[in-house]
Amino acid sequence: MVELVRSSHKVFKIKYHFVFCIKYRKDLFLEESYVETVKQICKDIEDRFHVLFETAGFDEDHVHFLVESLTTTYSPAKIFQFVKSITARELFLRHPEIKKELYHGEFWSDGGYAGTVGEGINADIIRNYIKNQGRQVDQLKLVDFV
Questions:
Q1: pTM for the complete prediction?
Q2: Beta strands 14-21; 10-12: pairing state
Q3: Facing residues of 69 across strands?
Q4: How many domains does the chain have?
Q5: Alpha-carbon Rg for the chain in angstroms
Q6: Residue range(s) defining the domain that contains residue 117
Q7: Residue 107 in domain
Q8: How far lies 101's CA from each of 24, 29, 58, 104, in Å?
Q9: Each residue of 17-70: pLDDT tens digit?
Q10: Taking each helix axis from N to C terminus, what angle separates 32-49 and 76-94, rounded to the nearest 10 degrees?
Protein backbone atom coordinates (compact mmCIF):
# COMPACT_ATOMS: atom_id res chain seq x y z
CA MET A 1 0.00 0.00 0.00
CA VAL A 2 1.17 3.51 -0.79
CA GLU A 3 2.27 5.41 2.30
CA LEU A 4 0.60 8.81 2.37
CA VAL A 5 2.05 11.95 3.89
CA ARG A 6 -0.12 13.38 6.61
CA SER A 7 -0.30 17.03 7.53
CA SER A 8 -2.82 19.10 9.42
CA HIS A 9 -6.16 18.56 7.71
CA LYS A 10 -4.72 16.90 4.61
CA VAL A 11 -3.27 13.68 3.27
CA PHE A 12 -1.21 13.60 0.07
CA LYS A 13 1.39 11.83 -2.07
CA ILE A 14 3.25 14.12 -4.51
CA LYS A 15 6.18 12.97 -6.68
CA TYR A 16 8.07 14.66 -9.49
CA HIS A 17 10.48 13.51 -12.18
CA PHE A 18 13.13 16.17 -12.86
CA VAL A 19 15.88 16.15 -15.49
CA PHE A 20 18.74 18.67 -15.47
CA CYS A 21 21.36 18.86 -18.24
CA ILE A 22 24.87 20.18 -17.69
CA LYS A 23 25.63 23.38 -19.59
CA TYR A 24 27.13 22.74 -23.04
CA ARG A 25 26.30 19.05 -22.47
CA LYS A 26 29.71 18.59 -20.84
CA ASP A 27 30.31 15.02 -19.65
CA LEU A 28 31.26 16.01 -16.10
CA PHE A 29 29.37 13.18 -14.39
CA LEU A 30 31.98 10.75 -15.66
CA GLU A 31 33.95 12.09 -12.67
CA GLU A 32 32.66 10.03 -9.73
CA SER A 33 33.49 12.72 -7.15
CA TYR A 34 30.97 15.07 -8.80
CA VAL A 35 28.28 12.38 -8.60
CA GLU A 36 29.05 11.81 -4.92
CA THR A 37 28.92 15.55 -4.26
CA VAL A 38 25.49 15.83 -5.89
CA LYS A 39 24.25 12.95 -3.73
CA GLN A 40 25.47 14.72 -0.58
CA ILE A 41 23.94 18.04 -1.66
CA CYS A 42 20.61 16.27 -2.26
CA LYS A 43 20.73 14.86 1.28
CA ASP A 44 21.28 18.37 2.62
CA ILE A 45 18.35 19.67 0.53
CA GLU A 46 16.11 16.92 1.93
CA ASP A 47 16.73 18.01 5.50
CA ARG A 48 16.16 21.68 4.78
CA PHE A 49 13.22 21.69 2.34
CA HIS A 50 11.16 18.61 3.31
CA VAL A 51 11.61 16.69 0.08
CA LEU A 52 12.80 13.12 -0.43
CA PHE A 53 15.11 12.11 -3.26
CA GLU A 54 13.79 8.63 -3.94
CA THR A 55 15.95 7.76 -6.96
CA ALA A 56 18.66 9.47 -8.97
CA GLY A 57 20.20 8.34 -12.24
CA PHE A 58 23.30 9.94 -13.70
CA ASP A 59 24.36 9.91 -17.31
CA GLU A 60 27.58 11.64 -18.31
CA ASP A 61 25.88 14.98 -19.11
CA HIS A 62 22.56 14.96 -17.24
CA VAL A 63 20.80 13.67 -14.16
CA HIS A 64 17.29 12.35 -13.47
CA PHE A 65 15.69 12.73 -10.03
CA LEU A 66 12.52 11.15 -8.66
CA VAL A 67 11.61 13.55 -5.85
CA GLU A 68 8.78 13.27 -3.35
CA SER A 69 7.45 16.42 -1.71
CA LEU A 70 6.76 15.99 2.00
CA THR A 71 4.90 19.28 2.21
CA THR A 72 2.36 21.13 0.11
CA THR A 73 4.16 24.43 0.74
CA TYR A 74 6.25 24.32 -2.44
CA SER A 75 5.04 24.28 -6.04
CA PRO A 76 6.76 21.96 -8.54
CA ALA A 77 8.42 25.02 -10.10
CA LYS A 78 9.80 26.11 -6.72
CA ILE A 79 11.22 22.64 -5.94
CA PHE A 80 12.74 22.51 -9.44
CA GLN A 81 14.27 25.95 -8.89
CA PHE A 82 15.85 25.34 -5.49
CA VAL A 83 17.19 21.89 -6.37
CA LYS A 84 18.78 23.26 -9.53
CA SER A 85 20.24 26.41 -7.95
CA ILE A 86 21.52 24.80 -4.73
CA THR A 87 23.18 21.88 -6.51
CA ALA A 88 24.92 24.26 -8.94
CA ARG A 89 26.07 26.69 -6.24
CA GLU A 90 27.38 23.92 -3.99
CA LEU A 91 29.14 22.10 -6.83
CA PHE A 92 31.00 25.30 -7.68
CA LEU A 93 31.94 25.83 -4.02
CA ARG A 94 33.12 22.25 -3.46
CA HIS A 95 34.79 21.80 -6.86
CA PRO A 96 36.10 25.19 -8.07
CA GLU A 97 37.79 23.52 -11.05
CA ILE A 98 34.35 23.01 -12.63
CA LYS A 99 34.14 26.73 -13.41
CA LYS A 100 37.06 26.36 -15.83
CA GLU A 101 35.25 23.53 -17.63
CA LEU A 102 32.14 25.66 -17.99
CA TYR A 103 33.87 28.91 -18.97
CA HIS A 104 33.12 30.51 -15.57
CA GLY A 105 29.40 30.24 -16.26
CA GLU A 106 26.43 28.29 -15.04
CA PHE A 107 26.46 24.61 -14.15
CA TRP A 108 23.06 23.61 -15.52
CA SER A 109 21.59 24.42 -18.93
CA ASP A 110 18.56 26.66 -18.97
CA GLY A 111 15.32 24.79 -18.55
CA GLY A 112 15.06 21.07 -17.95
CA TYR A 113 12.20 18.64 -17.53
CA ALA A 114 9.63 18.46 -14.74
CA GLY A 115 6.76 16.00 -14.66
CA THR A 116 4.39 14.66 -12.06
CA VAL A 117 4.47 10.97 -11.22
CA GLY A 118 1.49 8.96 -10.04
CA GLU A 119 1.93 5.87 -7.89
CA GLY A 120 1.56 2.35 -9.22
CA ILE A 121 2.56 1.44 -12.76
CA ASN A 122 3.51 5.03 -13.68
CA ALA A 123 5.98 5.36 -10.78
CA ASP A 124 7.48 1.93 -11.53
CA ILE A 125 8.02 2.88 -15.18
CA ILE A 126 9.76 6.15 -14.19
CA ARG A 127 11.90 4.38 -11.56
CA ASN A 128 13.04 1.77 -14.09
CA TYR A 129 13.70 4.44 -16.70
CA ILE A 130 15.89 6.39 -14.27
CA LYS A 131 17.71 3.22 -13.15
CA ASN A 132 18.59 2.37 -16.74
CA GLN A 133 20.10 5.75 -17.60
CA GLY A 134 23.43 5.89 -19.40
CA ARG A 135 26.39 4.17 -17.85
CA GLN A 136 25.61 1.41 -15.42
CA VAL A 137 26.47 2.57 -11.91
CA ASP A 138 25.00 1.56 -8.61
CA GLN A 139 21.58 3.10 -8.46
CA LEU A 140 21.45 6.06 -6.17
CA LYS A 141 18.64 5.98 -3.67
CA LEU A 142 18.14 7.78 -0.39
CA VAL A 143 19.65 4.90 1.57
CA ASP A 144 22.82 5.13 -0.55
CA PHE A 145 23.39 8.77 0.38
CA VAL A 146 26.18 9.36 2.88
A1: 0.82
A2: unpaired
A3: 14, 51
A4: 1
A5: 15
A6: 5-135
A7: yes
A8: 10, 12, 19, 8
A9: 999 999 999 999 999 999 999 999 999 999 899 999 998 999 999 999 999 999
A10: 130
